[in-house]
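Support reply, case 0932

Customer input (verbatim):
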Amino acid sequence: MPNIRKPVVVILTYDHLRTFEFGCAFEVFGLPRPEMGPDWYRCLTAAGEPGRLRGAGGLYLEPAGDLHLLAEADTVIIPGWRGPQDVAPAPMLQALRQAHARGTRIVAICGGAFVLAQAGLLSGRRVTTHWLHIAALAAQAPDARIEPDMLYIDEGDILTSAGSAAGLDLCIHLVRKDFGAKAANSVARRLVVAAHRDGGQAQFIERPLPPPAGQRLSVLLDTIQARIGENWTVERMAAAAHISTRSLHRHIVGATGLAPGAWLLQQRIAYARTLLEETSLPVEDVANRSGLGSATNFRQHFRTVTGLTPTTYRHRFASWQ
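Our regenerated output:
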């Protein structure tokens, strides 16, 4: 049997490790997943500093190795950090700079962005972190473009996420990039989470939904996603939720950070991506099933959102080719 090169993910650990963020990364990349085939990730844990390492909640850690493991990594994940003002050890920062120079993909969950800032890897980058720490990150990385309302940002070789659970969204996004929508959906089902929350979704809800309208809105959004190919005007959405169009706009913006039309387009594009990745349907059929109308209209919207034509996207990401 040929020796298959598995993509190597190294999760960095440190004293007072943020165990939730670490758990998000390990759940996605570290658990055995025989259903994914022999080329699934090889996951290692690396001590970012010497000495006995503790995790939040009184846990003690035994990583697989030290910073030398970063030389093997295709992807390095920094799961949180001790705090915005806590300076990372110089060897850790140097190892991250060297890994990045080799072309390694560096991923920071939540406060891990502060480690990237200290390593000088955020210059000129779009970046996000937990909304509570946006000002502190802007002060530490003044030449970075801070995006306070994003769940995660993918800059190719540098990726950052907002607080805690958004790190799980980012990890599933990486699976989608590396192995396609089918693999990402499978991992998400195992974790009982949404298979795809776009990075541009707002980090938090500014106003809780009033219970009656909130329940109706939740049912409405689920219905739209299940029948995404249908003609969903704002008036039809409002009528289905038994609220005014003005209330509909307010509630959807509060729940998703997007106006109704923008949210609907996001869902249509997400469904179209899945069809392009998992089926050989002609582009015209993908456009029709996702509710984007003509193939020309579909191509325009798809390219605006993804930067690629549907055909190029399929060639790059289809799991069946």
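We compared this against your earlier run and they match. Two observations from our side: The longest helix spans residues 260-278. The chain is about 45% helix and 10% strand. Please reopen the case if you see a mismatch on your end.
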